[in-house]
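Quick one:
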Amino acid sequence: WVASIYTSVRCGSGPLAGILLDTFGARRASTIGTITFIIGVLLSTCATELFHLYLTTVLCGVGASISCILAVSLSTLATERNALIALSFAGTGAGAGMIVFAFLGSYTMDLSGWEGFYYVALTLSSSALLSLFFFPANFEASKPRRKKETAGGMFENFRHAIEKARQGFHRGWLLYREPGFRLIIIILSIFSLGAYFPLVFVAERAQRFGADDSRAFQQLAGGGAALIAGTIIVLWGANFFNIRPMIAQGVCLLGMGAATILMLLATDYTGLSVALIFFSAFSGPTLFLCPQAVEQTLTEQMNSTHGLGHIMMWNSIPMLVGPPIAAFLRDTTNSYTPPYVIGAAILALAGLLDIYGDKHTVRRKRVLPVLSRTRTEQTSLKEFRVLMKASYV
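Output:
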């Protein structure tokens, strides 16, 4: 239940990232997410009952959702020309974190158990605050202007923040007018459902093959290294050969389906580990191509943060129902074959839809109006019609 609550909250609170970005700016929004996660991990070290972990996991999920979405989406805003290269570096950091966490977690588990494991997580998450000092200067323009610290000024600041949050909420839901964005939600929801079908049985099959906790951490480190290699190869290759993001993502989804079949065919722990390495190598690029896939359907760049948040919100549904369905299939048939085959078929379907959606989104791409109540920021109807004609041309 702890893992399920964390996954559902982390995905369900995705739209908060875009709202906080519009309200407080990039640096403050990232600070809110990081500190929320740190508080959740710190309180988890003091938990004495399982119910306490349920509550602290909610804080960890909300903080991780805000921080992860902003880290990925803002990577593309920092370098518009080389967005895929920036995302590959973000994937490299994620894989390196998995490797470091695997070795430190294995050592700490042997030394002091789960309590020390949480202290390692607290130390690593606290170091994420250092990244706040490296934000580009142009991100600070989105912060609200501060008034004087008087009663009237504080009320004006509060009213301005509420108005920005309302606009951010409205901008997020306006994305559903885009047919390509709706297609991406369907594709990535199918991807989440198919990915959880094989992953839910990894630990169980590894124990049957004689694996212990130390070998599980080694497997996590191997997955992190594969994620780094796969992300660099795919994203740099897509940037060099000018491959559109949805096509590259669709090919990676097909590769994940093939890796799922390899997991099913594995007869020992080594074969299962190799299949998981291939699965991680394709899953990393699939995840880090999401911002560019969203950008392919939208023309207003800051909407990518809202788009990623809403995609994560919808992905929480298959993440919750996928493991019970896979377990039901396994228990009903007394075999791992049905869930693995169905998972591979679902991933292949998502990949084919992604490749098909590439042509669909390029053909239907259009411009979203700028949402604002102020006269200086509002796009006139005449200008908007000109932009619409130019976008279709």
